[in-house]
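Data deposition worksheet. Section B asks for the primary sequence of the deposited chain exactly as it was used as input, without tags or linkers unless they were present during the calculation. Section C holds the resulting structure in token form. Section D is free text for depositor observations; keep each observation to a single sentence. Incomplete worksheets are returned to the depositor.
Section A, Depositor: J.P.
Section B:
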Amino acid sequence: MTKIIVVIGMHRSGTSALTGTLVNAGAWFGDPALAAGGRPARPLGLVERKDFLRLTEPALQAVGCSWHDVHGFQPAWETGYAERVREQFRAGVLADLRCHPISVLKDPRLCLLLPLFRPVMKIAAALFIVRNPHEVAMSLHARNQFPIGLGAALWEAYNRHALAALQDVPSIMVQHRRLISRPAQCIPQIVRQLASLGIEGLDADTAVAANSIKSNLYHHHAEQALNKLSAGQREFWKALRQAKVPSDVAAGDLSSETRETLQAHHQERAAV
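Section C:
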């Protein structure tokens, strides 16, 4: 029986590095030709499948959102549209993943959209990777020119939705800083944890030897910049940083600062 691993995490949080590590350890991602952003030096690019992305961003748009505009995101997935998306997923992406003993699926939008796909996808385990919110916000600012406050608000929204989606999924917590700075210790631990959940056969030694995680590419260090976050965001990050497993942290409600920031961003987009 196929074991499907999903990698869950906010954009700019190390989901690509983590998924690439699983592929190096032996998990099936898909034909490299399907990789979004693939290039000769990095064949798997973002380690996201283009055929899956053709489902996820339109699914957000169908409920009035986008990957960076999630104000009021409270979708109901018991609709004809949702069923059609699930059928496309089942006939395409999922059919391919099921052809291999261990497969991995990654898209940061799964923080929001996992409930859409779960009715047709049996998940053996989820890897939930979390990163310092100010580092995420700085990375989004560098890539997308988003204000730091918006990046931090998106970080909170994605992670709270992810926790809610993972409540009954066997899940493993991965700290971005540890994965990037200590891959030789972190990767074998992840492989052992997956084995404890029944996902056996991944090769940690091969993944470590591939040396795909470059600590010198770890940009936007911000451990001392937490004072730039709201009090609610700081408390949420503290809980995530200390958690052993995702279920240690309650999904909770968005902080008032995050709600206001997301609403303002939504209104700005609507006015354009």
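Section D:
The two ends are 49 Å apart (CA to CA).
The chain has one domain: 3-271.
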